[in-house]
Amino acid sequence: MADIIRLLPEYLANQIAAGEVVQRPASVVKELLENSVDARSSSVTLIIKDAGKQLIQVVDDGVGMTETDARMCFERHATSKIKTTEDLFRIKTMGFRGEAMASIAAVAQVEMKTRARGSELGTCLSIEGNDIIQQEPVAMGEGTVVSVKNLFFNVPARRNFLKSNPVEMRHILDEFQRVALANPEIAFALYQNEVEVMNLPAGKLSQRIVSMFGKEYKEQMASCEETTPFLTVKGYIGKPEFAKKSRGEQFFFVNNRYIKSQYLNHAVLTAFEGLLPKDSFPFYVLFLEIAPETIDINVHPTKTEIKFEDEKTVYAIVRAAVKQSLGLHNIAPSLDFGADVNYMPLQPMKFPASMDFETAPAQAPRASSAMNHTTTFPSRASAGSSRDDSYSDFAPTREVSRANSDDSSLFPEEEDSFAPAKSTMTGGSKTLQVHQKYLMVQVKSGLMVVDQQAAQERILYEKYSQALGKRTGASQQLLFPQTLQLSPADFSLVMELSEEFTALGFVFNDFGNNTLVVNGIPAEIPLRDEKELIEGLLEQYKNNLSAMKVDRQENLARAMAKRVASRLTGRLSDQEMNALVDRLFGCQVPNYTPSGQKTLVILQTEQLQDLFLRS
User: Fold this and answer.
1) What residues form DSSP beta bridges with 419?
2) Upper half-sphere CA count for residue 73 (Cβ side, 13 Å)
3) Where along the chain is composition biased (Polar residues) (predicted)?
4) Any idea what the Cα angle at residue 480 is, between residues 479 and 482, rounded to 5°?
């Protein structure tokens, strides 16, 4: 049998390696910016054209390279960062693998100009697909200029898989933000298609945060600092009242390297427990300094994942640092034990007069296990099928017995659950609202309980899906336009989805500096905090991106339905309850939300009888 195993050609091996390191233009931006930071630069400029597909250029004033180093940096596993195995566990530089430049050169046309400090001339090197085209001396200032052109020019399949320009630019902005935040002592600038997007002067971390995210962050930042022999935590957290519905501005840096860690994020959220509104996320930029030998950053080529030797201790220290910061800035509630506090005496519990406990049996019989009976639900109706037959067994009946509806003690008001309440079952009503969350409807087979919010979500989802498909969304104009300051990434996401937002009924204009002026929102949405609505919608959209594989119209329809449905809660009139049930059964799939949650439950008559132990 002939030998069949052979070494891959160098150009092919480099292209395979590039698949791990260079996934999109943002990957190139990350590697080049980190190289500039490692080169001890004081000023770094990033120039982008066509969202990085045409040009990615990084200009720095770092130490530069000699002619030999300029050629060597494009060889695989060539690096100045480490020399021995021990160095691998004492890494403090951003790069160390020696793969980035070789991987970039394998899938792009690269031109590098560099001049080492103290040298009279620099070197200009042109590489295409790992082949050196030319190398010649050049007159230039000290530092390095790397230009990456026509990314994936020799791998057309990879280029075709790139997303739209707004999507790729959003990822580039994320990488730029992370490197700029980690190094506030370095001046950074970003230009997109010859337009200045960001210009961040060198300064303190607080100044960098304000320059990057906006002046309103001045009043919402609280410093956070904790020093222990094991770990040092420094940075800033946001005050709870400024929490947003999107989780954009949350950053962890370990030894100045940006990392992603749900574990540490949970530590911060635990410290904020009881201080944040529902579905809100705090701002934080936290730097962790820890001995390099106690962590492992050599987990993934992107180097955003990290392993701690003692992660429980890190969790505890981060949580304690944030909690202490909240207390020092008088954010967390505290007890003053020296104060003279007069506590009100406990009031006796009041019951309706109609309830006579003396004549009640000593012990009520327990409900039988019928509560656990399995309820059979109708199968989902297909988009084109008729719903009359599918739901005829439990369609709401028009007549409701009101023989006992005058007993006001059966329907307590929410304001005082023990006080007698008036019945909400007025003449002609077929529906009863319970705790402003559920609707009870008499049906032929028994009793149907509808989750009010889930039903709204199903109805709105089908409405918004139709509006996005036909571009027919209606708007309601705001009396006073609202300005909305977004993070660069969220602003880029809004621009990316601008057509879909318009189709839903949003009316907004670009006000510059990542700011929107909102003039109108979709019709039938309560006019209340448009900023929260849009932030929540963006957060839900991003959550859906990570949880499911659907196109952006489907994603946006789901996100919009979920966020708007959360607003349409509270007390409903008889007409509104009846209309809600009718609209639910007008949907194509009335018994489930888009995510698969039940909108209704049927209690059969037999089950109700079993609850009262009737034979």
Assistant:
1) none
2) 27
3) 369-378
4) 130
Helix (H) or strand (E) holding 160: helix 156-160
Give the CA count within 13 Å in the CB-facing half-sphere of 275.
23
Cβ pair 591, 602 in contact under 8 A: no
Q: Three-class SS of residue 612?
A: coil
Separation in Å, CA 382 to CA 62, 462, 468, 590:
63, 13, 20, 11
Q: Are 326 and 273 in contact (CB under 8 A)?
A: no
Q: Which two tokens stand for residue 20?
A: 């791990």
How far apart are the C-alpha atoms of 109 and 99, rounded to whole Å?
17
Kindly list the distances between the CA atom of residue 67 and the CA atoms of 63, 102, 529, in Å, as whole numbers in the listed order. Answer: 13, 17, 59
Mean pLDDT of the chain: 79
Q: Express each pLDDT in 1-18 by its tens digit.
A: 677 787 777 767 766 666
- Share of residues in the chain with pLDDT > 70 (%): 76
Report the predicted TM-score, pTM, of the whole model to 2 decimal places: 0.68
d(CA 123, CA 113): 6
So what's the pLDDT on residue 407? 40
Q: How confident is the model at residue 369 (pLDDT cuts 50, 70, 90)?
A: very low
C-alpha of 598 from chain center: 25
Asked if the model's pLDDT at residue 25 lies above 80, the reply is yes
Question: Per-residue pLDDT for 114 more than 60?
Answer: yes
Report pLDDT for 412. 38
For residue 377, pLDDT over 50 is answered with: no
List 512's β-bridge partners, or say none. Answer: 515
DSSP string across 62-104: S----HHHHHHTTSTT--SS--STGGGGS--SS--SS-HHHHH
Tell me, rounded to whole angstroms, the distance of Cα 368 from its chain centroid.
45
Single-letter amino acid code for the residue at 45 = T
pLDDT given for residue 90 in this prediction: 61
Amino acid at 117: R
Measured CA to CA, the distance from residue 268 to residue 281 in angstroms comes to 10
What's the pLDDT at 16?
66
Q: What is the DSSP string of 545-577?
A: HHH----HHHHHHHHHHHHHHTTS-S---HHHH
Residue 528 CA: distances (Å) to CA of 77, 292, 532, 564: 57, 49, 8, 11
DSSP 193-256: TTEEEEEE-S--HHHHHHHHH-GGGGTTEEEEEEE-SSEEEEEEEE-GGG-BSS--SEEEEETT
